[in-house]
From TrEMBL:
<protein>
    <submittedName>
        <fullName>Protease B</fullName>
    </submittedName>
</protein>
<keyword id="KW-0645">Protease</keyword>
<dbReference type="InterPro" id="IPR024079">
    <property type="entry name" value="MetalloPept_cat_dom_sf"/>
</dbReference>
<dbReference type="GO" id="GO:0008237">
    <property type="term" value="F:metallopeptidase activity"/>
</dbReference>
<keyword id="KW-0378">Hydrolase</keyword>
<dbReference type="GO" id="GO:0006508">
    <property type="term" value="P:proteolysis"/>
</dbReference>
<dbReference type="InterPro" id="IPR024653">
    <property type="entry name" value="Peptidase_M10/M27/M57"/>
</dbReference>
<dbReference type="Pfam" id="PF12388">
    <property type="entry name" value="Peptidase_M57"/>
</dbReference>
């Protein structure tokens, strides 16, 4: 089994110390008086504890008491806190090169993390985030970089991935750029390794970048089609189909988060994942065909 993105990660000890100094925890912190309700106070205490858990526990950074002036939590600290509150476990949240990822391959911006805390506009019974692309985005243009185009199988895979989406009657069409009439744009660029990464929508727009590993040049065009289709799936709001048990497609790994605010089951799709059961499984095989499964088609038609 192959991961989409396999990286090392850490939060700096400075960030952890700042969190401890900026948000000291005590029993009273969650229950003291004031205008806020006990539930609101408990929520704030939970968010602070969540950030500290990621900073000091799951990501294995130092949390000493070295001197220094307290500073406000960073943008990444808020993203991490929002993700934990949305149901993502701390050990599935990674901070890589200054960016926050979940599920190894999905970048989460501050705006996207805030949207995950908003109530879903409707409850659908594959899995999606609360973040979706607006119906006003009718033409999504995928613009490959020169580096991307220099890899023939990545380039062919992109064309086939676009055809996968355009083969369904969705509220949007995709087009390979450069072209005109785009209501949203996604840049297709390269990264090292044999995998990919993307992110979740925010503000009604798809995530603006998909990163595809140049190592995929040594795989079949079908595998490239599969990976690119998968990353575009994240960009329009899909979570991993086996988010609740990554070992189904990866052979190891745990739960990416409870099916709550950040993982909403889509009507008509299975509640259990199987190997090869969805393009949106966490890990891919060298035998992938790059084509939608029936549950993938159901999921896309339900949302778009």
């Amino acid at each position: 089994m192959l991961f989409y993105k396999n990286v090392s990660f850490s939060l700096s000890p400075q960030v952890a110390r700042q969190l401890l100094m900026s948000h000291p925890l005590s029993v009273a912190d969650g229950w003291s008086g004031g205008s806020e309700s006990p539930n609101s106070r408990k929520r704030q205490m939970f968010k602070r504890a969540a950030v500290l858990a990621v900073s000091c526990g799951a990501l294995m950074v130092g949390c000493g008491t070295e001197g220094g002036e307290a500073q406000a939590p960073s943008e990444n600290d808020e993203i991490v806190a929002n993700l934990v509150e949305a149901g993502f476990p701390a050990n599935d949240i990674m901070v890589v090169d200054g960016a926050v990822y979940v599920g190894r391959d999905a970048h989460v911006t501050l705006e996207a993390s805030r949207e995950m805390l908003q109530p879903a506009p409707f409850s659908l019974e594959q899995y999606r985030t609360t973040n979706l692309v607006s119906s006003t985005k009718t033409k999504i243009c995928i613009n490959p970089t020169a580096s991307f185009n220099s890899y023939s199988r990545l380039s062919q895979g992109l064309d086939l991935a676009i055809a996968n989406y355009n083969g369904l009657s969705l509220t949007f069409k995709m087009a390979r750029g450069p072209t005109t009439g785009c209501s949203a744009n996604i840049t297709a660029t390269t990264m090292s390794g044999a995998g990919g990464s993307a992110g979740f929508p925010s503000g009604g727009n798809p995530y603006g970048t998909i990163n595809i590993g140049t190592g995929l040049q040594s795989y079949s065009v079908d595998v490239n089609e599969h990976v690119i289709t998968h990353e575009l799936g994240h960009a329009v709001g899909f979570r991993h189909s086996d988010y609740y048990n990554r070992s189904i497609s990866c052979g190891s790994g745990g739960n990416e988060g409870a099916a709550g605010v950040g993982a909403i089951h889509i009507a008509g799709t299975p509640t259990t994942a199987t190997v090869g059961g969805s393009i949106m499984n966490s890990c891919f095989r060298s035998t992938e065909t790059g084509e939608w499964t029936s549950s993938d088609r159901t999921a896309l038609n339900a949302l778009y």
